[in-house]
Amino acid sequence: MTLQGKKIVLGVTGSIAAYKAVELVRAFVTAGVSVRVVMTESAQQFVAPLTFATLSRQEVMTDLFTLDAEAKIRHVAAPDGADLLLVAPATANAIAKFAQGLADDLLSTLFLATTQPVVLAPAMDTDMYRHLAVQENLERLRNRGVRIVGPATGELASGLLGPGRLADIGEIVQAATELLCPTRDLRGEVVLITAGPTREPLDPVRYLSTRASGKMGYALAEEAMTRGARTILVSGPTALSSPHGVECIRVETALQMHTAVLDRLAEATVVIKAAAVSDYRVAQPADSKLTKRDAPLTLELVPNPDILKEVGTKKGERIVVGFAAETGDLIRRAHRKLTAKRLDLIVANDVSQEGAGFGSETNLVVILDSGGGVEELPLLPKRQVARHIIDRVVGLRQHKDRV
Ligand code: PMT
Q1: Which domains does the chain possess?
Q2: Residue of 169, 159, 216, 128 whose CA lies nearest to 31
Q3: pLDDT tens digits, 326-379
Q4: Whose CA is nearest to atom 21 of ligand 1?
Q5: Closest C-alpha among 367, 388, 377 to residue 227
Q6: Residue 6 is assigned to a ligand binding site
Q7: DSSP-based three-state secondary structure for 355
């Protein structure tokens, strides 16, 4: 995969992380990429345009209101002008402008004019990043096909600890590379993925559930789709919106997930079950709200079908990948599930570890295979964990095709 000869526009906005964009320019230029830097007015408060001009060996664009600005925008945004628009760091303000379609400076105008893939790497204070307005704007952009990288979690310029740091330079370069030189090694595959929790009603207002947010499964769906697979995502209730280009089937209960998976199984060449399914459901949910009493309440729970086990029995030529969420004795328990459910791979995560499992942006996993292999991955963003899992699926497919 070579980036030589590719052209990107790098938008730099007014965050303290603007100095890290200098590193980005160096990384791209070293890889043979032509980088045209566009700076907002506030970005110039943090880093001088001359720094970027020197490293990129190109004039830095800063001003919308020059005589030839319109021609420049057309030139830079046109298909033969740039292969990608990358904005790093992207502030809350820039993200809001992009989401709302405002065009009151050069970068936001360029964003509206570009027809090429766009990558945004947000950087801001934790509380700003968590604000519903920012989250909604990011979600809106994601739904329009913009690739969002990060932010990372750690210590911020304000001294606060939390999400908001610009993602690692390597991660941003990797995301840009995937869009500049897409790997289509899953072309021809139909990947069926489950994600999120299931909800098992007790009555019309209460339910039993698991703590899954869906992030792991959605990252897998995005990765599989990006690599050329027709991707079907069966999702329990989550706050996430369907990844662009993925067919998403929303379900609530384990029984509904069971039906949806079996309905689509015949099409699937790969099944990955990242959902945290409730093992039990209430035998007889009440028709109306259970009233509070001063006495213990006993609920009768019945087992839900083990969807993955059933998929394993109908495996055929399919590649089947399960997850194991454990709080101890990780490898032994995961290995038992790998064998009992006839899986090719199982991704074991100890959900009692910091940064692993439910709800977090990262995961810490060990991948076991049916040949006895054990691969331990470091703590990584879920999208990178997804990339490793899909790499393993591609490896298995190549192996199966050879024998
Ligand atoms: O969604 P996130 O917040 O990102 O969190 C990710 C995750 C922790 C949910 C994910 O990494 C994970 O571990 N998913 C599997 C959780 C789980 O249910 O593990 P389990 O060990 O109970 O189940 C083993 C496997 O059988 C899983 O692939 C599960 O999807 C499947 N299963 C379980 C029960 C059941 N009735 N049917 C199933 O198919």
Answers
A1: 7-180 (3.40.50.1950), 190-402 (3.40.50.10300)
A2: 169
A3: 999 999 999 999 999 999 999 999 999 999 999 998 999 999 999 999 999 999
A4: 324
A5: 388
A6: no
A7: coil
